[in-house]
Amino acid sequence: MHYCYYTGDMIKKSYIIRVAALKMDSIEQKLIKVLGNSCLERISIMGNFPSVTISLHPDSFEKKNIDSVRKEFGSYCYSRGENSLEKVVLDLLREQKSTLSVAESVTGGLLASTIVSVPGASDLFTEGFITYSNEAKMRRLGVDAGVIKRYGAVSPEVCIQMAGGAASTATVDYSLSTTGIAGPGGSTAGKNVGLCYIGLHSPEGTYCWKYQFSGSREDIRKKIVFSALDLLRLKLEGCDKRLNSFIEVIPDQ
Q1: Which residues pair with 20 in a beta bridge?
Q2: What is the predicted pLDDT for the residue at 82?
Q3: CA-CA distances (angstroms) from residue 244 to 10, 205, 240?
Q4: What pLDDT is stored for residue 209 in this prediction?
Q5: Among 11, 154, 160, 237, which residue's Cβ finds the most Cβ atoms within 10 Å?
Q6: DSSP string of 95-110, one letter each residue
Q7: Number of domains, the chain
Q8: Interval 174-178 mean pLDDT
Q9: What are the DSSP calls for 115-135, one per residue?
């Protein structure tokens, strides 16, 4: 799909490309590389990290230009059109006949709410676990008390166990987990506000990725949700090169 606007009696459609996990300077550099130094004067760029929408005017660019831009962004492009990331992810799950659950701490249900905002999500999304306290993580997801005591709730070790616990409890193919410090308080030695871990359980193993976000409490929580969904998208699309940046990979036995 495209954005539409009127020019005289004609309706013209802008080409839309949505990209994830790139800073603005990187986005601009890629556009200049493909379209030339003056291209930014003819392009609308909306949003900011971690999600940016690029709108290219059809009077200024041909379809071959759009294809070149899409190729340059590669796996960072999550949609050619108006589809949201959550819609893209659910469509991929549907194509692969796979199911999903989530285990949330720092996001407190925002991830599940984002997923179920897409019509038809109930075909793929089975349930969500909001395990804000350590006791809830242990009781509902089977997180080991010793692991929490040794590493803390905001750690890759706990995040990985949360993802695995959500997958086994819900009996699904994929699960996402979130744990972190959204602020404004809560930081400890070596763990600042904005630190978070996102876990992903898949049929091939359980992964965990570390982020350090900035912004308000709500900004940080929204960035975690978007990044978790993008992580799942990359896995479903088989983007192995991007997956190599995971800090932990624990294969299923």
Answers
A1: 51
A2: 87
A3: 47, 13, 6
A4: 94
A5: 160
A6: HTT--EEEEESTTTTH
A7: 2
A8: 98
A9: HHTSTTGGGTEEEEEE--SHH
